[in-house]
Each structure stands twice: as C-alpha cells, then as structure tokens.
Inverse folding.
C-alpha cells in the first residue's frame, strides 16, 4: 500500500489555488473601480475545476508533451489568460468602466468564505494523514 | 504565491485613492484663491487612473518568455490634469487683486463636485483596506495548514 499525496489531498489543493487566483482577480477589479475604460473580469470557477478534475481522473494533467530534450517546459499555469472572462455589466458607467463595487465586494467575500472551507477540507486531510502515520 | 499580490493590488488602489483625495483637498482649499489674471489663477486638478498591465511588469522582471497575459494588476495614477472649465469672473473693484476693469478671477473649482469626489474616494479607499484585511486573514489561515 502506498500513500500518494495527490490521492490523499484530492481536489482541494487545486480548489484552494483557484480561490487564491480568483481573489486576486476580484481585488484587481475593486482597485480599478474608478479607472475609466476598465472592464471587470472574473473566473468561471466550476468550469475550471471540472477541467482540472477530469485531468486528475485521466491521470495526467494538460501538460504539453516534450518530444525533444531542447524543448522548454511550458509553465503549467492553472489559469491561462483566455480563461479570464469579462463580467456582464448590470449598469455600465459612461466612462466605459464595468466594475460594480457592490457585486465585486460580495463576490470577494463569498470567495474568501469558500477559500476558508477549501482550506478546512485540506487541513483535515492533512490531519488524517498525520493520524495514519502516527497510528494512534 | 499570488495571495501576496493582492497586497500590491489593494495597496496600489489605496495610494491611487489617496492621491485623488489629495487633489480634492487641494481643490477645496484653493476654491476661493483669487487672482488678477487668467494665467495665475488656480485650476481644479484631477488625477487620471489607468490599470497596470501585468505583461509590462513581467518584461521588467526579465521573464519575457512567459506567456503574455492581458490581465492587469492594480491601478496607477498616470498623471494629474488641470481642468479647462471656464473660470469664474467676479466684478469686485475693491478687491486688492482686481485688474484695471475691476474684475477678479476665481478658480473653476466646483465645491459640490469635489465633496462628492471626496466621499467616493474615501469609500473606495475603505473597500481596498477591507480587501487587504481579508487577504491577510486568508494568508494567516494558510500558515496554520496542517496544525
């Protein structure tokens, strides 16, 4: 029997990373709430997680094959720029800015809570691993 | 870890809003600064905000082989522009700074607009502080992983 970290930790590791990334995107929206012409952006969390999950289930992530030793490894970014979507504005302002401070703040707080729950899950996985190692 | 980037983003937002608050303070303080000629009179100042593009940052760090990302990180003040709205001309022959025709020029500062701007800037600043606080909590929690 072997203990694999990726099996033990499951999807929560990726979820936590995505939540962190999303927090960054939302923070950027809020910082640019008064910038003319700025378009609010967001991540489709479930679509990305689903994609990641399928990669895990298939046993390989979406890494590019390196057929030659001289090939540079492509950094495996969990979030490529084309996965960053634009938010549909509910009330766009006249200067072309589509940031709705209330929506962004609500999303940010929601994301923080979801981050905490992902964290809790991950933390408990680590706890059970420690228990298994100690054998108490 | 990209959580630490939130500190930079919220920090840039806070500094941009404080510059906006600064120009507002300057505008309100100088709202009644009279002058005898149109050239010397104080004009309302406004900051120009622009999103900071990440690829510019990445290039500066020398990692230009990284994939190009059009996402932005934070906000920057591009500059401060003076308003070219018409100046206020008042007929005050007794004023020590009146010109030959008896007119005094007052700045084109709209105090009501400045007050609204001040409220907007302080609220935005507050929001950025809260974002930073939330990021701090998230980071602190992360440090307790596995405990």
């Amino acid at each position: 029997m072997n203990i694999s970290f990726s099996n033990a930790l499951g999807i929560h590791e990726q979820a936590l990373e995505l939540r962190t990334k999303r927090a960054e995107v939302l923070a950027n929206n809020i910082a640019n709430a008064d910038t003319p012409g700025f378009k609010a952006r967001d991540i489709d969390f479930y679509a990305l997680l689903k994609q990641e999950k399928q990669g895990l289930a298939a046993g390989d992530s979406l890494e590019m094959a390196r057929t030659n030793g001289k090939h540079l490894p492509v950094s495996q970014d969990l979030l490529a720029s084309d996965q960053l979507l634009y938010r549909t504005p509910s009330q766009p302002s006249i200067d072309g800015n589509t940031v709705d401070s209330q929506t962004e703040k609500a999303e940010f707080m929601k994301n923080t809570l979801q981050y905490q729950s992902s964290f809790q899950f991950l933390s408990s996985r680590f706890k059970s691993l420690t228990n298994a190692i100690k054998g108490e | 870890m990209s959580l630490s980037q939130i500190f930079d983003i919220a920090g840039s937002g806070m500094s941009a809003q404080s510059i906006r608050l600064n120009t507002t303070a300057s505008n309100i303080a100088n709202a009644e600064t009279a002058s005898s000629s149109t050239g010397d009179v104080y004009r309302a100042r406004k900051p120009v905000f622009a999103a900071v593009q990440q690829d510019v940052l990445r290039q500066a760090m020398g990692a230009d082989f990284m994939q190009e990302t059009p996402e932005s990180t934070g906000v920057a003040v591009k500059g401060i522009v003076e308003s070219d709205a018409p100046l206020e001309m008042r007929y005050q022959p007794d004023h020590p700074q009146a010109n030959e025709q008896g007119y005094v020029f007052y700045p084109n500062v709209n105090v009501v607009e400045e007050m609204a701007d001040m409220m907007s800037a302080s609220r935005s600043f507050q929001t950025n502080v809260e974002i930073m606080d939330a990021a701090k909590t998230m980071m602190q929690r992360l440090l307790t992983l596995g405990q």
Notes: Chain B has three helices and four strands. The radius of gyration of chain B is 22 Å. The first strand of chain B starts at residue 45 and ends at 53. The helical segments of chain B are 3-29, 54-60, 111-143.
